[in-house]
Amino acid sequence: MASLSVVMPAYNEAAHIERSVTEWHDGVVAAVPGAELVVIDDCSTDDTGARLAALAERLRKLRVLRTPRNVGHGPALRLALEQCAG
Question: pTM here?
Fold first, then answer.
């Protein structure tokens, strides 16, 4: 069970997602035992999903979720929060 869950929504963030995720993962999540970073991709239409998948391959505390259709910021956050362990 995670002690802390950091949730990040994403929608068409291909240009910035790698830097944001890496900074949060390395700066916060990696420093807290049992923490996790949960990124929910709200059905992006750009390369966000592929970039997140590549990041998840190398960042062990990263969990990537994806909505089946674009639901908007608030609902996407709620979906992610329901899946958090911390």
Answer: 0.92
- With a CB cutoff of 8 Å and minimum separation 6, the contacts of 5 are 35, 36, 37, 38, 84, 85, 86
Residues 6 or more apart whose CB falls under 8 angstroms from that of 83 comprise 38, 63, 65
Handedness of CA 53, 55, 59, 64 (dihedral sign): negative
What tens digit of pLDDT does each residue of 21-49 get? 999 999 999 999 999 999 999 999 999 99
Give me the sign of the Cα torsion angle 20, 26, 28, 29. Answer: positive
pLDDT in tens, 45-81: 999 999 999 999 999 999 999 999 999 999 999 999 9
DSSP 83: H
Secondary structure class of 2 (helix, strand, coil): coil
